[in-house]
Design brief:
Length: 456
């Protein structure tokens, strides 16, 4: 690139960048999608800042520092030998140890984990904490497995992973299919293999080094993000109908906080379909859902047998229900462009992404073109990893902070992220493009650290 890239050339450079990325990473569609989403904001920003493009900063961020792929071999309850594939993507450690969750789901591929590790790098930067970006997991399906099978899988997974992680090197946590149970088995095996009692995982149980409010943090944070965005338009949650997808960790605590702030959450979902409860999913119903998911390990369709006013919509996603606000909290690409348009047509004025990259690229454009409040995942769901960072601090200092203190830090962190998005994302007409703001703010801190290190 020449020193200053003229505005009319930016798109050409973006396209050339993407062609190279696709050539080097063939077939990795989710990874391409995540990188493209970022460069559309960052290329125009760095066009007149040669210090970034001369040093190939974006090219280096989009090439993981290290990709570790390994076989995970375990025995099921019938004595069959099972083989899965495990991964850890260490994307970038310019501003801190690699940090990011582990996902156990049959849909896990190299592409999915590379997209997540890339996103995590920007998200972790936005938190303001010293956290690099990583992600890992396996194509293992915990659904329908016994506790013993899950334990044996986690132990086999850690037999290899422990070589690559450490409290100052790489600190995994939970994600889809990895919750308190799995973190317990993983931490136990790490401790056994290394004889070290260190904060090498976050999301741990409170008895063994976990932090208060880590479980709630992602869902709460996504709702705080919306609360901040609403406040910027002198509005609140009061009386707003909210759609939530998913019924796992992020979704359930998003519902709790929506209710707490005066909104009404009316949907939840899983891969089988969604439930619609026009009366609202109140605290009692939510407690039933948490037990269904975490203890009974059941399906959301069972909700309608328990709560009569609700309906179940098999094979569908909640976005067809009229609403004021939407919180996708299940998985990537769960809002198609058509569904985004349906949301807009039905009066939706705000979307906060609890899941990672839940909205397809053209769906995001539809939201931003309509100038609704739209918080992209790397900003909206950063509360989880932020409290993970606080768990690491508590582990290093061998102390426990109070719930009040952690609540305050979480809410301040989300306000800080909101304000950074406003700083870098305000358009000439006053509209705040939170996607642009999050991408640029996340980029700048990592990029400046990389510049300080020289070419390494
Ligand atoms: P959980 O495993 O607790 O819950 C996942 C939920 O999403 C389940 O209801 C699951 O339904 C549903 N789901 C998963 N995959 C699909 C799919 N392919 N189609 C439809 N539904 C699906 O995971 P989390 O709540 O932890 O994670 C949800 C999202 O939030 C993910 O995108 C994750 O990356 C993101 N996230 C999580 C953080 C955390 O702290 N846990 C932090 C930041 C982001 P089913 O049971 O049928 O699979
Ligand atoms: O996507 C995410 O930010 C997470 N799954 C949480 C990562 C973490 O390290 O807490």
């Amino acid at each position: 690139m020449s020193k200053i890239v003229p505005a009319e050339k930016v798109e050409e450079y973006q396209n050339r960048f993407m062609e190279g990325l696709k050539r080097r990473n063939p077939g990795e569609t989710e990874f391409h999608q995540a990188v493209y989403e970022v460069i559309q904001s960052v290329f125009p920003y760095i066009a007149d800042k040669p210090r970034y493009h001369e040093k190939q900063i974006l090219e280096r961020m989009a090439e993981p520092d290290r990709v570790i792929i390994f076989r995970v071999c375990w025995e099921d309850d019938e004595g069959n030998i099972r083989v899965n594939r495990g991964y850890r993507i260490q994307n970038n450690n310019a501003i801190g140890p690699y940090k990011g969750g582990l996902r156990f789901h049959p849909s896990v591929t190299l592409s999915v984990l590379k997209f997540l590790a890339f996103e995590q790098t920007f998200k972790n930067s936005l938190t303001g904490l010293p956290l690099g970006g990583g992600k890992g997991g396996a194509d293992f399906n915990p659904k329908g497995k016994s506790d013993n099978e899950v334990m044996r899988f986690c132990q086999a997974f850690m037999n290899e992973l422990h070589h690559h992680i450490g409290p100052n090197l790489d600190v995994p946590a939970g994600d889809i299919g990895v919750g308190a149970r799995e973190i317990g088995y993983l931490f136990g095996q790490y401790k056994n293999l290394t004889h070290q009692y260190v904060g090498v995982l976050t999301g741990k149980g409170l008895e063994y080094g976990g932090s208060l409010i880590r479980t709630e943090a992602t869902g709460y944070g996504a709702v705080y993000m919306m609360e901040n965005m609403l406040a910027s338009r002198n509005d609140t949650f009061e009386g707003k109908t909210c759609l939530v997808s998913g019924s796992g960790n992020v979704a359930t605590y998003a519902v709790e906080k929506i209710n707490h702030l005066g909104g009404k959450a009316v949907t939840l979902s899983d891969s089988g379909g969604y439930i619609h409860d026009p009366d609202g999913i109140d605290a009692e119903k939510l407690a039933w859902v948490v037990n269904l998911k975490n203890v009974k390990r059941g399906r959301i369709s069972e909700y309608v047998d328990e709560f009569k006013g609700a309906t179940f919509h098999a094979g569908k996603r909640p976005w067809e229900v009229p609403c004021d606000l939407a919180f996708p909290c299940a998985t990537q690409n769960e809002i198609s462009v058509d569904e985004a348009k349906t949301l807009l047509k039905n009066g939706c004025t705000g979307v906060s992404e609890g899941a990672n990259m839940p909205t397809e690229q053209d769906g995001i454009h539809a939201f931003i073109d309509a100038k609704i409040l739209f918080a992209p995942s790397k900003a909206a769901n950063a509360g989880g990893v932020a409290v993970s960072g606080l768990e690491m601090s508590q582990n290093s200092a061998r102390i426990h902070w109070s719930e009040d203190e952690l609540q305050r830090l979480l809410s301040e962190t989300m306000k800080g992220i909101h304000d950074k998005c406003v700083q870098y994302g305000r358009e000439d007409d006053g509209y705040v493009n939170y996607l642009k703001g999050a991408n640029i703010a996340g980029f700048v801190k990592v990029a400046d650290a990389m510049l300080a290190y020289g070419v390494v």
